């Protein structure tokens, strides 16, 4: 993703998420590595902000998208090490994130769907809202992007346009 700090200058975006960013529970996501070149806070902000831009572009609910996008990976363990009897990391961590998100803010049914279904593809429950599809797609791309930097990758505008175009087609 180009200019990973663009969100810092976007006051409209910041107004939507600043109460969440002010929480220690959100800030401490920075202590956990996510992909090769990012920590979990950087990853969460990246997914939130790019999902927000796409939601705005296609006329979806950018507030729910930005907020749930920011909280979608709110868990505090190293997924490479910690294993759960209840199921795979892909199944368990969205549910843990939802529980943690509820401790710091009110979560709407749409935001719940965004958080719980963000691993669609690895899990089978179908996202119910287009906002859930956006976050799930952006999360997939972010994983590749954060892993691949600085190897060749699609430019930010290209992939954002691609996702927006696909979404517009699906929900036309
Ligand atoms: Fe996740
Ligand atoms: Fe994620």
UniProtKB/TrEMBL annotation:
Domain of life according to the entry: Bacteria
InterPro entries named in the record: HD/PDEase_dom, HD_domain
Domain HD: 40-143
Coiled coil: none
A Pfam family of this chain: HD
UniProt protein name: HD domain-containing protein
Organism the protein comes from: Leuconostoc pseudomesenteroides
């Amino acid at each position: 993703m180009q200019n990973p700090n663009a969100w810092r200058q976007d006051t409209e975006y910041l107004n939507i998420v600043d109460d969440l960013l002010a929480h220690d529970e959100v800030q401490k996501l920075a202590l956990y590595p996510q992909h090769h070149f990012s920590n979990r806070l950087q990853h969460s902000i990246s997914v939130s902000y790019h999902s927000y831009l796409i939601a705005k572009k296609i006329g979806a609910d950018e507030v729910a998208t930005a907020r749930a996008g920011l909280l979608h990976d709110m868990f505090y363990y190293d997924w490479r090490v910690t294993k759960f009897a209840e199921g795979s990391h892909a199944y368990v961590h969205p549910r843990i994130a939802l529980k943690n998100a509820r401790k710091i803010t009110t979560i709407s049914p749409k935001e719940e769907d965004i958080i719980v279904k963000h691993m669609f593809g690895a899990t089978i429950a179908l996202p119910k809202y287009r906002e859930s599809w956006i976050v799930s797609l952006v999360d997939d791309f972010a994983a590749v992007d954060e892993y691949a930097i600085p190897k060749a990758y699609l430019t930010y505008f290209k992939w954002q346009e691609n996702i927006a175009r696909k979404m517009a087609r699906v929900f036309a």
